[in-house]
Amino acid sequence: MVYAKEGDVFKSGVIQEAKGTIAIKDFAKFRETEVDSLVETIILGQSDHMKKFCFWVAYNAALACGVVPSSIQGLYEAMGKGRLSGFTVPAMNIRTLTYDLVRAVFRSAKKIDAGSFIFEIAKSEIGYTDQRPMEYSSMIMLAAIKEGYKGPVFIQGDHFQLKAKNYLQDKEKEVNQLKEIIKEAIDASFYNIDIDSSTLVDLEKKSLDEQQKSNYEVCSLFTQYIRQAQPKGVTISVGGEIGEVGGKNSTPEELNAFIKGYLKILGKAKGISKISIQTGTSHGGVVLPDGSIAKVSIDFDTLKKLSEIARKEYGMAGAVQHGASTLPNEAFHHFPQVSCAEIHLATQFQNIVYDYLPLPLKEKIYAWLHANCAAEKKPGLTDDQFIYKTRKSALGPFKKEIFSLPKDWKDKISSVLEKEFSFLFEQLNIKNTKKHVDTFVTLMPVLKKKEDFLKEEKELGDLEGAD
Predict the structure, then answer these.
(1) What is the model's pTM?
(2) Which of 14, 15, 285, 455 is in Cβ range 3.0-4.6 Å of 326 for a Cys bridge?
(3) Is the Cβ–Cβ distance between 368 and 270 less than 8 Å?
(4) What whole-number distance in Å separates Cα of residue 274 and Cα of residue 400?
(5) 3.20.20.70, 1.10.1740.10, 2.30.40.10, 3.40.1180.10: which CATH number matches 67-354+410-441?
(6) Could you read off the pLDDT of 229-263 as tens digits, one per residue?
(7) How far apart are CA 234 and CA 194, in angstroms?
(8) Would you kindly state where each structural domain of the chain is located, as residue ranges?
(9) 188-227: pLDDT as tens digits
């Protein structure tokens, strides 16, 4: 049911507005009936006011149900001090059917008492999936309530990235646009943010310091901005990046050049908790002419070496692996073995959704791609390659249609993804990590007013970037 007006939310008597917040009278009934209505209103509703009102209800209901958007900083500090090891935190980009697939993540996590996992969305994904930060975080919180999950929930801005060309043309404009996105994300309870200024690395420069200089200067600037913007009592976990994914593999010397320059500028402010590096992967994988994905060889030695430097010399959780979801299954158990702190997973989840979409809808989407993304059909690109490379662009325009699939169809997709999540969680060894999260992550519920949710959203700037 889509709520038409504010009063409809309280008509059942299951929830009430009380002193600027939400009182839930029957938690079981709220999970059973009202959560799905909030989701439907946010995704399918026509009223922007009602969507924002539902964001407010969802947030306060989450806090009432023990679901608390949190920073993973405490856990990563424990990893940096050598108090925790042996597992790799999966950071999952959910591009479509977000509510249903996040529910599947929570089900998989509850089966093994896992707590160390992150939901994230990249700057570019916010654009092409039509998921603004407040909507994305609301879907995650409502999914947690629906599945009876309690405790810290980690929501992350992935690849909050500067575009090098734009930065060189107008630094102030490019920096301010990214600041606006960061502020919107923090307002939406993204208490984990990955700054990607690796696009500014200039390998033509002679010294490593010169190569990394713009990168560490800008990363320091945004770290300081985040520290000023973070809510009282919350230390946002910030990530940096030294090697652009898809480029040359990172080296210890590059890591040291970046961190030393970064810390010198940063001063007394809390620095990054992890560092993203390049080890041979690319976002989405390398697509072959028949549409299949080429096998990739990961440089696990580099990953191990740089993770060790990051932990032992700088107190960080370790190195982060991007572009990993299309790796072969036999690769994933290696990441905990080399002390990889975090691994980013995205494209394979999207691929599975597409594999199980009804054929008529899939054909409709592919026809749309040929009509609307024709400029991306480069010479020599096969149809299979073109579809694979561009189909992410259809997720926003077809968001409502995909969400409106029959329940049994969505349940089938969720079931397949639940098995995928369970496999990854097992390989990354996050079983029984809920106790670590509860030990090292301090719950800091941030109280927010209704007006915070009903304010006007600004138009976001350039949302292109890594995906």
Answers:
(1) 0.94
(2) 285
(3) no
(4) 36
(5) 3.20.20.70
(6) 999 999 999 999 997 654 578 899 999 999 999 99
(7) 16
(8) 6-64, 67-354+410-441, 359-394
(9) 999 999 999 999 999 899 999 999 999 999 999 999 999 9
Predicted confidence (pLDDT) per residue in 67-97, tens digit: 999 999 999 999 999 999 999 999 999 999 9
| Per-residue pLDDT tens over the stretch 402-441 | 999 999 999 999 999 999 999 999 999 999 999 999 999 9
User: Average model confidence (pLDDT) for the chain?
Assistant: 93
